[in-house]
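My main concern about presentation is that the manuscript never shows what a single data entry looks like. An entry of this sort, consisting of the sequence and the corresponding backbone structure tokens, reads as follows:
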Amino acid sequence: MISLDTNLILAALDPKDIRHEDALSFLEATSSNLCVSLPVYAELRAGEGWPAVEAFLKGLHV
């Protein structure tokens, strides 16, 4: 199982992020057995972009 970090998720969601393409490539290469720890979930949930993050994570089956 691979635990995703906040920075990776946010980079994958933001096309302006310098790590955007790398984040997407990583997620495509490791698209199974992904999870988010409770501290990462709390960080993401507290952000303004939660609806987009939630949809993104559901799309990854996280």
About this structure: The mean pLDDT is 94.
